[in-house]
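P.,

For your records, the input lines for the assembly:
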Amino acid sequence: MPQTGPRLAVRLAPFAMLVVLLASAHPVQAQGTAAPDTVLADTTAATGSDVAPAAPRPPSKLTVKDASNDAGRALELQWVRSPDDLPGQSLVTQYRLERASAPSGPWTVVDSASAGSESRADQSVTRDTDYFYRVTAVGPGGITPALSVTGPVRATSQWINQTRWSVLILMVLFFGFVLFFISQAQAGKVPFVRRIPGIDAIEEAIGRATEMGRPVLYVPGILDIDEIQTVAGLVILESVARLTAKYETPIVVPVTYPIPFTIAEEMVKSGYLHAGRPEGYDPNSVRFVSPEQFAYTAAVGGIMLRDRPAAHIFMGAFYAESLLLAETGFQTGAIQVAGTANVHQLPFFVVACDYTLIGEELYAASAYLSKEPKLVGALKGADLMKITILILVLLGCILETANIHVLTNLLQTQ
Amino acid sequence: MKRELPLMITAAVGLFMILSFFVPHHVVSVPADFLQSSAIIIVAFGYVLGGANVLKLNAEAIYRRNPGWIYKLILVVALISTVVLGLFDGCNRKGAFLEEGSSSKWIYDQFYSPMSATMFSMLAFYIASAAFRAFRIRTVEAGLLAVAALIVMLGRVPVGSLATSWLPGWLQLPTMQEWIMEIPQNAAKRAILIGAALGVMATGLRVILGIERSYLSGED
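Structure tokens returned:
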């Protein structure tokens, strides 16, 4: 039986509506005037501009705790990332950390973390003050309101850094060794110290300068007094000044920083005084040059080439200028003795100098030169500590090989 | 007392700074931070002494017309003009000496920076002459050093990799240089560093305990 007009219209109505919907969603296609590839491009563009991306879902489970082992200067925040924060997607661009002194606000943005982050430390806190935190996700679709507020939490000072027990124990042990051997040395049991050719060469170099009637150049490194190598260099300077006073040979000491400069003056003066020749001290022997690395290098190079010292002694911390100084000195034909604990500069000194004190020999030099029982005793203490460290290293290797990490964990510090 | 008082202050401050390494509490850390940052005041006074020394030494040399006195004159003029211009900059720009457009920045860019770069670039020539001496094979040790240096240098450039790519992995230059740097070189370096670190501690302890006191001069 043929269908009547109204029933057919009812059946076709959904299709008609679909066509209308499609036409409204794809106006260009509906017009049918553009080429197929143009249609696709325009369609994509229309979709991108019309449908704005949604704001990312918020991060959750924000926890805030006091940073351990500090003076109450930081709080550590940790959260679970937004479910939309996935690798390769850019729905989340960053997390914004907000802080307030009350749960109702007002909120201040204290920091932000890039997408993928799950923790951050707020280091702008005031000690013993209550804070509330919340974390929001930011993306191209906007900012998501935070799920919850965490707090109150406060940063507090700790009395002991729990990660430094091992350092404390080893340091007390080391100080104990040193003090024991110092007392032994004071009681007359002066320990044996092996011959260090580099230090013996200092007297030889000064003797040669005396024979040639030329000065001795002493460089106590290029760093300030907060570098212990500079301290060691200045301590050796006293012994060197004593020798130059004894041999009546002028000494020239160019210095980089003002504090080492004043100490170097005292050292040279002390050397002349202990040698019984205070009148031989020349106030112009110690010269302040410049704290600038290459300005200092140029000045010392100038002294080498103009004054032609017969002996160059470099003791302290050196960097790129080590080879510039040592090679210039080599070209002048001076006898050169160097000492540094800067491992990367040692090869340059070894190549360009006649003798080189390596690492710890620099620190041993003052004891070796002065033969003072207390100083020599301190050397023996350091030797015993080295044996202890050696045993710990060997034990650590064995335990780690056996997949036992007790010792490694015990010795880890923060 | 002239010697005892400084020794007591040194010991007290030294032990306090050691304590601050283990005790992070603000009762200790705040004064410790203050002590460290206040050192800059002492350094500022030290610079006055240093500047006076530079002027005194060079003025004497200029006055006596010592050889090279003209260079000393240039030094003194440069020193004084830099200080004066720096003072003007400091007053005009509220202490921002090296801001773009300041005369201090101009001096830095036009004089100091090129001269410093020149000194640094000379290092390349010095390395060449030093390397020439270092790699002369006179003894077995020098021979080992030369061979190791050759392997490391070639192993770090593409030609080393290319030249030995047909060999088994462990014989290829990049692998060999990596082994030299990671095993024997690292072991030696760490041994030196451990020894030096203990030397640092021993020297520090000697200064704190007043055993090392030569820096106080010989006057009693």
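Two observations worth noting. Chain A touches chain B through 79 residues (CB under 8 Å). Chain A is about 45% helix and 20% strand.

Regards
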